Amino acid sequence: MHLLYYGSEQEKALHWKRTQDLLRAQSVKMGKQYDDPESINHIQPFIESFHLEPTLSELKVNPR
């Protein structure tokens, strides 16, 4: 998935309906998977993979 976001040809592919459908389906699938409490081990690698450390202070805690 990461490869879709790097390069001009890959950027063009992001506008194809088939690519958008694939990304949407993958997003829904991963969202369901990460809603599971057992997914806690995936949090830090996700943060590191997308270089999200600088934005973590913007997150809000949602008490359940």
What's the helix and strand layout?
Elements: H1 8-13, H2 17-35, H3 43-49
Radius of gyration: 15 Å
Unreliable stretches (pLDDT < 50, length at least 5) are none
User: How do the SSEs run, as a string of H and E?
Assistant: HHH
Mean pLDDT: 79
Give the helix tally: 3
| Structural class by sheet pairing and helices | mainly alpha
Oligomer: single chain
Determine the N-to-C terminus distance.
31 Å
Number of strands: 0
Taking the sheet with the most strands, its summary is: none
- In what range is the share of β-strand residues? under 5%
The global form is extended
Share of helix, binned: 40-55%
Explain the overall architecture.
This protein is mainly alpha-helical and 64 residues long. Helix content is 50%, strand content 0%. The protein is extended. The N and C termini lie far apart (31 Å). The model has no long low-confidence stretch (mean pLDDT 79).
What tags apply to this protein structure?
64 residues, mainly alpha, 3 helices
In short:
The protein is an all-alpha fold. It has three helices and no strands.
